[in-house]
Write a structure and sequence with these properties.
With 375 residues, the chain is mainly alpha-helical. The chain has one domain. It is built from 14 helices and no strands. The N terminus is likely disordered.
């Protein structure tokens, strides 16, 4: 298995397949010295890091606006619903009004930020670019076999390959930089067959070559294992991360918490309903009835807020997508490991690249169409 980039007790680290972490690069230097220049692409990593930072920042804004909208609206409604049980002092009325007004203003600002679509669009276009760069890197390994093998002769051939690769990358960047709007639209709307391949020219490996055997090992570690680990991480049902990092939790862990909280609210609502019936039948304590009715309304408001968060996170769709992706990777990896011919293994690698593009397209479609996004 691939060596970890960080101690096992830390959070899952992504992007090691591009050798973005020092330990990953050191491992590749020891394990794959003959094809290190194929796996190690500093310029591509620099471009990837630039768009990854933008994507993470924009997603943070989307999350902030989403939670602010839900939280502020919930607090305003709770203040309004519970006002009858507040002490009737003048300062309490002013405090309740301030809660309601401040909550609604904050909610309107947050909803306006979401509806403008600026940050969501920036997040999706930047994430598109990072995944296309990753796909470009691995598709080069899969589809430019002749160039890869020719580059492994000596230092001069390595330099020639790196210069040619930079020209290929520049051509790719020219198609995407400044055109991410149209590229996003194309990726979402076009058939998968049209957008799948970033290296249209395909040159074959010499199937009996020793370089190809090393490529197979590297691809299995850096692509199959990394992508499978990514999907498994997204499908974990538990987490060691604290509650204030809830949005970074795996989808299954989020679903467990939200489902549990919703169930507890449902049970609470049933208990309050039963108590209200008892009070109406056996007591004339109007104050108690007021408190119970107010509590029931507050529970309903909190339940609606949790339901909105659940929908905003798109937990069920997220789980389904990653489960399907994990199963595809598992099947392809199994075929790859049990294939005895080089051509069959390369076909599995092509299918893996195709599956990664399909998963990216499904991700972008889901979040582009969502009117409220927290993921």
């Amino acid at each position: 298995m691939f060596e970890p980039s960080v101690p096992v007790e830390d959070e899952h680290v992504f992007n090691g397949d591009l050798l973005t972490h020092k330990t990953d690069l050191e491992f590749a230097m020891r394990r794959f010295p003959r094809i290190l220049h194929i796996l190690d692409h500093p310029r591509l990593r620099a471009e990837f890091a630039k768009y990854d930072r933008v994507a993470n920042e924009a997603r943070g804004k989307v999350r902030l606006y989403g939670f602010l909208a839900v939280t502020a609206s919930t607090l305003a409604l709770l203040a309004l619903a519970t006002r009858p049980v507040w002490p009737h002092a003048l300062w309490n009325r002013w405090l309740a009004g301030a809660f309601e007004f401040g909550g609604m203003v904050a909610a309107l600002i947050a909803i306006g930020g979401l509806w403008s679509g600026k940050w969501k669009h920036r997040w999706l276009t930047s994430r598109l670019m990072t995944e296309r760069l990753r796909q470009w890197h691995f598709q080069l390994i899969v589809r430019r076999g002749h160039e890869v093998e020719a580059s492994c002769k000596d230092e001069a051939s390595i330099k020639t390959f790196q210069e040619e690769r930079d020209r290929w990358l520049e051509h790719f960047l020219m198609e995407y930089r400044g055109h991410l709007d149209s590229q996003l639209e194309s990726t979402i709307e076009d058939p998968l067959e049209k957008i799948a391949w970033l290296h249209e020219d395909c040159s074959k490996y010499a199937y009996d070559g020793t370089i190809l055997k090393e490529v197979f090992v590297a691809y299995e570690l850096l692509r199959f294992n990394h992508q499978y680990g990514f999907a498994v991480c997204k499908l974990e049902s538990s987490t060691i991360m604290p509650i204030w990092k809830f949005l970074k939790w795996p989808a299954k862990a989020q679903r467990s918490v939200l489902s549990g909280a919703t169930f507890m609210l449902f049970v609470t609502a049933l208990i309050l309903s039963a108590l209200l019936i008892c009070v109406n039948l056996f007591s004339e304590a109007e104050a108690l009835e007021l408190y119970l009715r107010t509590a029931a309304i507050a529970v309903a408001i909190i339940g609606a807020a949790l339901s909105t968060i659940y929908e905003g996170l798109g937990v069920d769709a997220e789980i389904d997508r990653y489960r399907e992706y994990r199963e595809k990777i598992s099947r392809l990896h199994d075929r790859f490991k049990h294939s005895t011919e080089g051509a069959q293994r390369l076909r599995c690698m092509e299918d893996m690249e195709y599956a990664s593009v399909e998963e990216m397209q499904d991700f972008l479609r889901a979040h582009q169409k969502a009117k409220f996004v927290l993921a």
